[in-house]
Design a protein that fits this description.
alpha+beta; about 220 residues; disordered N terminus; 2 domains; single chain; six-stranded mixed β-sheet; tt1808, chain A; about 35% helix
Amino acid sequence: MTVVSSATVSLHAIHLFPGSHLLISDVAWEQYETFLDELGEDCSIPRINYSNCTLEIMSPLPIHERLHRLIGDLVKILLDAQNRDWEDFGSTTFRQPERADLEPDTCFYIQNARRVRGCLRINLEKDPPPDLAIESDVTSKTTLAAYRAIGVPEVWVYEEGRLTIYPLQAGEYILSETSLVFPTIPSVEMIPRLVQQAFQDGSSTVLRQLRSQLAQNS
């Protein structure tokens, strides 16, 4: 990871290799918005986040994408087995002006699924934040401050075969062994085990097996 000052770099000059991660400090919100306007729609930078005057730029590795997509698929199967509504908003950008601009790896509306099912855009002034965000920390470390600014009730971080659950309580994220979304499921043990099994036996095989097992137990 590289940290630089905003005064020493032009975003147009940045070319990231897969797995690269760059932090630019001392970036005011107005300067960040100017950067986005200059980059335009044809931005070659894969991922950009902003929080606490720090601009984060990254180029994820393939394993990064595989991990959060697989965990997202597991979440969908578990929710379906419980007959619960959900909406997958993927890496939608969530903006809290002057504070944070964030793209989760994957995120879900669950408790608020019905409220957003027809939404084509999310405006946090009138729409709720996602109920669950999932991050796979391969290229970079998740910045919980940005999630706190947006008010996401629960964040999952998967790193090096371990799932960490952060529920939001009284405005702060705490470590927890229990998920707010799945309070009766041992998620911190189950999710890493299924992820490792998927890399051994194949994702489709593991997902089919889980779906079949849950159907038999219902």
